[in-house]
Structure formats: C-alpha cells, structure tokens
Design goal:
It is built from six helices and eight strands; from the N terminus they run E-H-E-H-E-H-E-H-E-E-H-E-H-E. With 202 residues, it is α/β, with parallel strands linked by helices. It has two domains: 44 residues, no CATH class; 151 residues, Rossmann fold, CATH 3.40.50.
C-alpha cells in the first residue's frame, strides 16, 4: 500500500494481515521509483496492481489554478504511467497479471465545478484503455472501475453527518469487486465497470 498519510497507513497495515505499507506521494517521481524498488525487493514483482491514487480540486476553469490541475494530472495520469511501465513488463513475461484503475464519474463528464479534476480523470481512463488494448491480447488484464458514490470512511461521514447508510458505498464492497474483476476468466474480461449504491441517482 502506498499513500501520503503515514499514520493512516500504519493503521491499515495493522488491520490488514500480510500487508505492507510505504509512505509515498506518487506525484514525486523519484520517491515513487524508489518505493517501487522497495516493493519488488520486499514482496517480489506484483501480479496485481491497483492504482487508486487520486488528486482532486473543485472549482470552475476560472477558479482553479493551472498548477493545481498540473499536480492532479501528475497523480492521476503520470503516476499511473510510471507504475504501469514498471510492472507491466514482468506481467507480459509471465503471460498474466492485472492492472486495475479506480476512477469516478468525472472520467465520463465535465461538470462546471470539476474543472480542476475531471480532465485528469478522463485522461486517466483513456490511458487505461490504451493500455488495455495493448496488453489484453498479450494476457494482461487492464480494467477501469468507476465509483459513482461517496465512499464510507470517517471523513466522509463527517462531511455528510445526516446521510443514511444507503447513501454510501462500502470499501469492502469495492474491494470485492476489484478482486472479482482482477480474477475474471480470460473469455469474459471487463474493461469499463461502474459501481454505485442502489439509491444513487444517475
């Protein structure tokens, strides 16, 4: 597991048996490559990679600073490129493996107040599709999972204090679907997958 928040990572590492965590800002290319070295040295070459990093900012195109959009592009798109270029060759050599990328509906539409965010998620989805078309016929599964929901974590509960349980998507349910997609039979691979609570208006 890679993330910026060391305390949160330590808590997750303690809760998830067999897990290993590294503090890493994936927008820092030097640090990202060092951590990928450490991942391989510690755990071997991954057979499944989930790119779940996200950089976001709300605001119209007149409100969002170009530097903010650039940083979000580094997190959502360039970091994915670095990770895929690093680990896909070993998957290709093995003739199997999976790269799962998580996104949201900003990858599909550009709402006015999402100008600092949606362009990078759309680019991320297209990059994932380009990789899927190249790697899929060679035995490596690439999929893009759109999460059209608010994820049930402590800080979203604080943001939506009056929301009912049905408003949120459960992290465990997301993880189960990622696992399912990553282990699909080769005769029925998915690329575009969308998840949302049954009450979500879409």
């Amino acid at each position: 597991m890679l993330a910026r928040d060391g305390d949160r990572l330590a808590s997750l590492e303690a809760d998830i048996a067999g897990s290993k965590a590294w503090v890493c800002d994936v927008a820092d290319e030097i640090r990202l490559h060092r951590v990928m070295d450490q991942v391989e040295e510690t755990m071997g070459t991954p057979r499944l990679v989930v790119h779940n990093a996200i950089g976001g900012a709300f605001g119209t195109f007149q409100e969002v600073e170009p530097a903010v959009l650039t940083r979000n592009f580094q997190i959502n798109v360039v970091a994915l490129l670095h990770v895929a270029r690093r680990f896909a060759p070993a998957m290709l050599a093995a003739g199997s493996g999976a790269l799962i990328v998580t996104g949201n509906t900003s990858a599909l539409r550009g709402k006015a107040n999402f100008a600092g965010f949606a362009p990078t998620k759309a680019a991320q989805r297209i990059l994932a599709e380009a990789m899927a078309r190249e790697l899929g016929p060679k035995g490596v599964h690439v999929a893009y999972i759109v999460i059209d929901a608010v994820i049930d974590v402590p800080w979203t509960r604080k943001r939506y204090p009056y929301a009912k349980d049905d408003f949120f998507v459960q992290p465990k349910a997301i993880a189960e679907e990622v696992w399912h997609v990553a282990h699909q039979d080769k005769s029925a691979w998915s690329f575009n997958v969308e998840l949302r609570p049954f009450l979500e208006q879409w």
